[in-house]
Amino acid sequence: MSNTRRPVDSAEADVVEVNPLFARPGESTELARFSIPDCESLPETAYQIVHDEVALDGNARLNLATFVGTWMDSHAEKLYADTFDKNLIDKDEYKATDAIEERCRIILADLWHAPEPRNTIGASTIGSSEACMLGGLALKRRWQHARRSVGKSSERPNLVMSSAVQVCWKKFCSYWDVEARIVSISEERKVLDGHDLRSYVDENTIGVVAVFGVTYTGMYEPVERIAAALDEIQASKGLDIPIHVDGATGAFVAPFIQPHITWDFRISRVASINVSSHKYGLVYPGLGWIVWRDQAALPEDLRFRVAYLGGETPTVGLSFTRPGAQVLLQYYLFLRLGRDGYQRVHQATQDVAQYLSREIAKMPQFELWSDGSDLPVLTWHLRKGRSYNWNQYHLSDRLRMKGWQVPTYPMPDDLTHLTVQRIVVRGGLSRDLAGALVADLHAEVGFLESLTAPIEALGERPGFHH
Ligand SMILES: Cc1ncc(COP(=O)(O)O)c(C=O)c1O
């Protein structure tokens, strides 16, 4: 091993050094970083290198920025290890896995009150992004068929959504040539709620996206009110516009802890719903779902038939090979937790979110934007009307020094003057841990408030991307 000091940014170094503690006699102590090394390493050595490098990642338990599950129990991990060789697309070879995928989709359709869960159609996906692409494509294709059948142009489709949609919707519009009609959220209207919808929709509108669990704030868009606004538009203008519910987060929360909210297939205008299993479905990353309310909601020409069991199975999806193991993990959790288990887990999570909200609301420096009463997610900004020698980016940095990852970011277009911080509460953030976070928050705000001159505007960059 050379004693030469490595550049500070070791990612730029050409070689990976192997600590002499781990290198076995005769093994190379330096491995190329950006090309395949010439020689083999022992598995132990290769393992140690990769393991050590990712140890530098943040501590998942203290990552309050992500919606994505970072913990499963040991039985789930065993099942994962038992099944991570299964390719979901090999339906003929893995018939049982295929049957379980189908079963999970029906379970979700039932959870979301589809009139006939077994008559729904849908698929598991790599996450909500793929599911949203498919939901959007079905809206576009249905609209195109309807327009062509009456000899009208299908050249200029548009999709209506709030400015606070997750980036996957902007991708959808860009990748599939659909105009994004953006309804800006504001301090008065924090979510898309159907207000003034008639000035956004027209005969080229393929649908409206209702986000049930807004990524920026954790708030639910009121699907019922959006549907009611569209009912009025249909009555007056004759436009029958469907809704896709982006339930990436909320579709796994509300059925358990807010069953009184009507947001799903009980609303006849809701054509399709997506969800991420790897968020509040509590599964490790890599799994989402799309479910259409009935066969009519997914045009035939978006289904592909694969030969299977001497017959043909219709499939829909943007990818081909995908791991089957996460689907099995989802089914495991349905069995393991049941409705009651999901309810208890999410309720405990929401209790912690509301505890944090109350504590933050008591701090004179802050004003809550959302308080965890929808998703267990809270956002807050600096109270207006006084000056500060610091901003929330500085607070994020201070908290980071204690291990907490609490992102700071500007709100979307037309509200970018407002910078918020967000905590996504997940199962791992216990009430005790949340108490420790509150103590650290007080300590760091206390430090920042003691400054007698403004901190230089260093490091002011969003710590998070939606
Ligand atoms: C509302 C919403 N839609 C879609 C997505 C994309 O989900 P995924 O990361 O599962 O692709 C997210 C991710 O946070 C989200 O919050």
From TrEMBL:
Any one GO BP annotation for this protein? L-glutamate catabolic process
The secretion signal range is none
Q: Which Pfam families match?
A: Pyridoxal_deC (PF00282)
Question: Which InterPro entries does this entry report, sorted A to Z?
Answer: Glutamate_decarboxylase (IPR010107), PyrdxlP-dep_de-COase (IPR002129), PyrdxlP-dep_Trfase (IPR015424), PyrdxlP-dep_Trfase_major (IPR015421)
Which keywords annotate this record? Answer: Decarboxylase, Lyase, Pyridoxal phosphate
Its required cofactor(s), as named, are:
pyridoxal 5'-phosphate
A molecular function (GO) held by this record is: aromatic-L-amino-acid decarboxylase activity
Q: Does the keyword Lyase apply?
A: yes
Say if the entry is tagged with keyword Oxidoreductase: no
- EC numbers listed for it are 4.1.1.15
Q: List-wise, which residues carry N6-(pyridoxal phosphate)lysine?
A: K279
Kindly state which reaction or reactions the protein catalyses: L-glutamate + H(+) = 4-aminobutanoate + CO2
One cellular component term from this protein's GO annotations in UniProt:
cytosol
Q: Which NCBIfam families match?
A: Glu-decarb-GAD
For this chain, the family text in UniProt reads: Belongs to the group II decarboxylase family.
| PANTHER family for the chain | GLUTAMATE DECARBOXYLASE (PTHR43321:SF3)
Name of the protein: Glutamate decarboxylase
Q: Which organism is it from?
A: Salinispora tropica (strain ATCC BAA-916 / DSM 44818 / JCM 13857 / NBRC 105044 / CNB-440)
